[in-house]
């Protein structure tokens, strides 16, 4: 497929716009879902609230712990945000339009998402504090558990496309989307996505039971960047989910970029809602479920993809 | 090389320098987590150089594997050393004379290969380098390797199932006694 590369100055602009809109959408959705679920009333302030919270964090003092690994502590939030950006550049906005259509795009996404484990572990480890450290170890256990199902469902969508490029994966869904062709794919992907963004039931490394986990010692601008980075990871996995399972830019009437945005937003709504509707799962329970149930199901999904490819 | 351009050259030298420096930092770090992640940084540089060589798949898979492996290595080293956080400073090097000899020997050997060997110049032509690489690496043996891979995977799962505490042979700690001191 012919792909037009956006010019070098357009890439940061596109990324900034996508993450700016995406993170804001996550923040608004979060408030809307929480208020609706708890039977409250949505006021007009719902659109301003995220900006107010961000401004408050910017003004807040940044706390320091005793003898931290200062470099790793400063690196972790920036690294998480950078990895989210590295993951989303391969997602095509429209037919033939991606920030970077790498021939092994799905592998780039996988590599960036695997390095998320390093960013979150460093964030928990470098503060030199007990609860963040527990959070960091929790994320390693969680990441090793969702990593296999995630890799397998992505292999399953790449098989019928006979390509590792995300654009080709979207093109291969012409006629019938992967969400129908490979019914196990999207649910498994969403569980892994929730684990990746440590969101909702899998917000274990930053869980309330650890007083905030890896971000327990964070405040001010550091905490703001960490939260923005986490929301960016959520946007990235939603965009990739829309491309891999919901046919990306394909759809009637509207232009391609609109369909990509709508589908990404739909997955964001599902993930954010799940965060408020599902209870938090215990880490050891999740590890057992992931290895004993999710990986076998993901293997079945790979066989489905293989049969489709034949 | 026909389309070697200045940005690629600059990127190569920056990545090569970063790889060497972070590899050196592995041995200067005083904590197991730091040492593991300096090694990961070195691997990231090598992976990016592979991407520059149009081996996108190999370079990215290197990052994909190393992210998990370095974290697991760090966690295991912390567990074995009974240093709960890994933040406590400790010496990470030992057997100095042996290590220096081996290091200098390996460097001289590799440098000699790098300077003296005649490397073939074969620019990548295939539109799908990933597929070509697979054929190049495994050729006709693809099915054999895949079968061996699945057999190894089954063996590992079997070993875990047998050894796990809640395995089919009952409690793994049944009949074992805690290590006691002399009476």
**Number of individual domains of chain B:** 2
Measured distance between first and last alpha carbons of chain B: 74 Å
State the assembly state of the protein chains: heterodimer
Q: Greatest chain-chain interface?
A: A-B, 26 and 26 residues
Helix content of chain A: 55-70%
Query: How would a textbook summarize the main sheet of chain B?
Result: none
Roughly what is the average pLDDT of chain B, rounded to an integer?
Answer: 82
Number of helix segments of chain B?
6
Can you put this structure into words, describing what you see?
The complex is a heterodimer of chains A (310) and B (183). With 310 residues, chain A is mostly helical. Chain A contains 11 helices and 2 strands; from the N terminus they run E-H-H-H-E-H-H-H-H-H-H-H-H. A two-stranded parallel sheet of chain A has the order 1-2. In chain A, helix 1 packs across helix 9, helix 3 (70-88) runs antiparallel to helix 4 and helix 5 runs parallel beside helix 11. Chain A starts with a strand and ends with a helix. In chain B, helix 2 packs antiparallel against helix 3 (56-81). Helices cover 67% and strands 0% of the residues of chain B. The N and C termini of chain B lie far apart (74 Å). Chain B has 2 domains: 1-89; 128-171. With 183 residues, chain B is mostly helical. The A-B interface holds A 67, 69, 72, 102-104, 107-108, 110-111, 114-115, 117-118, 121-122, 125, 128, 133, 137, 140, 143-144, 147, 163-164 and B 31, 33-34, 37, 40, 56-57, 60-61, 63-65, 67-68, 70-72, 74-75, 84-87, 128-130.
């Amino acid at each position: 497929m012919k792909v037009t590369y956006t010019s070098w100055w357009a890439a940061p602009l596109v990324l900034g716009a996508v993450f700016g809109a995406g993170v804001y959408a996550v923040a608004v959705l979060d408030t809307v879902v929480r208020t609706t679920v708890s039977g409250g009333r949505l006021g007009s302030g719902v659109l301003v609230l995220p900006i107010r919270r961000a401004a408050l964090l910017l003004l807040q003092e940044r706390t320091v712990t005793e003898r931290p690994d200062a470099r790793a502590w400063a690196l972790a939030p920036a690294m998480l945000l950078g990895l989210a950006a590295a993951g989303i550049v391969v997602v095509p906005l429209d037919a033939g339009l991606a920030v970077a259509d790498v021939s092994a795009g799905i592998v780039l996404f996988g590599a960036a998402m695997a390095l998320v484990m390093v960013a979150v572990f460093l964030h928990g480890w470098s503060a030199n504090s007990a609860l963040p450290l527990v959070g960091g170890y929790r994320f390693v256990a969680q990441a090793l558990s969702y990593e296999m199902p995630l890799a397998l469902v992505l292999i399953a969508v790449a098989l019928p496309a006979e390509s590792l490029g995300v654009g080709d994966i979207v093109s291969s869904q012409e006629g019938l989307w992967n969400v129908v062709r490979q019914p196990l794919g999207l649910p498994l992907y969403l569980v892994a996505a929730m684990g990746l963004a440590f969101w909702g039931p899998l917000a274990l490394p930053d869980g309330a039971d650890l007083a905030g986990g890896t971000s327990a010692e964070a405040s001010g601008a550091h905490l703001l960047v960490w939260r923005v980075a986490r929301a960016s990871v959520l946007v990235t996995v939603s965009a990739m989910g829309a491309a891999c399972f919901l046919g990306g830019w394909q759809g009637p009437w509207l232009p391609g970029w609109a369909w990509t945005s709508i589908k990404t937003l739909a997955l964001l709504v599902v993930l954010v809602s799940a965060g408020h509707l599902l209870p938090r799962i215990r880490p050891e329970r999740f590890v057992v479920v992931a290895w004993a149930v999710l990986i076998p199901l993901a293997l079945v999904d790979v066989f489905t993809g293989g049969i489709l490819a034949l | 090389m026909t389309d070697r351009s200045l940005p690629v050259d600059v990127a190569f030298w920056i990545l090569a320098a970063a790889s060497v420096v972070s590899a050196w930092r592995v041995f200067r770090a005083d904590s197991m987590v730091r040492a593991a992640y300096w090694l990961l940084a070195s691997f990231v540089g090598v992976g990016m150089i592979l991407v520059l060589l149009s081996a996108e798949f190999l370079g990215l898979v290197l990052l994909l594997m190393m992210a998990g492996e370095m974290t697991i290595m760090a966690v295991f080293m912390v567990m074995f050393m009974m240093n709960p956080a890994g933040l406590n400073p400790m010496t990470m090097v030992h057997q100095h004379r042996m290590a220096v000899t081996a290091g200098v020997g390996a460097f001289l050997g590799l440098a000699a290969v790098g300077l003296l060997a005649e490397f073939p110049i074969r620019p990548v032509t295939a539109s799908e380098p990933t597929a070509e690489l697979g054929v190049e690496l495994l050729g006709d043996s693809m099915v054999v390797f895949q079968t061996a891979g699945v057999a190894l995977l089954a063996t590992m799962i079997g070993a875990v199932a047998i050894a796990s505490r809640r395995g089919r042979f009952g409690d793994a700690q049944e009949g074992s006694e805690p290590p006691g001191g002399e009476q």
